[in-house]
Recover the amino acids of this structure.
């Protein structure tokens, strides 16, 4: 019984550590305190360079203001001067979960209960481009 409780606890910890992470590929600069927000590349008038791309996948239940703030905070940490929100889309993800239990009866007979279930969740995926203004690039 102790083994099955430990296995259950381990599984819960592993599953809860997944998801809601921001994935960023690109350059980093010293942290900024302000980030301009755009939704179209043509709206950016300041000369700039693309410093990186960011993707954030999160539950559709998350408040959009909270999601936007988290992305902006990450952009500031990476040293971005501006961010273009390229794509915001709803996704459906499936995650399989399974469980198993087994033991012996009073007369030594083996019995077991096995099950598996797939749960589908709605999510949102946000893709953004981080910009560094040319005037702020040392060099």
């Amino acid at each position: 019984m102790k083994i099955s409780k430990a296995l259950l606890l381990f599984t819960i910890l592993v599953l809860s550590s997944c998801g809601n992470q921001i994935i960023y590929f690109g350059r980093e600069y010293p942290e900024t305190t302000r980030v301009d927000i755009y939704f179209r590349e043509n709206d950016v008038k300041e000369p700039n360079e693309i410093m990186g791309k960011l993707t954030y996948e999160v539950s559709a239940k998350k408040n959009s203001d909270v999601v936007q703030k988290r992305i902006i905070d990450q952009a500031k940490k990476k040293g971005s001067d501006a961010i273009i929100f390229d794509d915001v889309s709803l996704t459906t993800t499936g995650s399989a979960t399974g469980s198993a239990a087994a033991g012996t009866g009073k007369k030594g007979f083996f019995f077991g209960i096995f099950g598996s279930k797939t749960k589908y969740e709605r999510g949102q995926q946000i893709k953004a481009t981080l910009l560094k203004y040319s005037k702020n690039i040392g060099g």
Q: What stands out?
A: Residues 19-136 form one domain. The radius of gyration is 23 Å. Residues 38 and 84 are 5 Å apart (CA to CA). Residues 2-16 form the longest helix (15 residues).
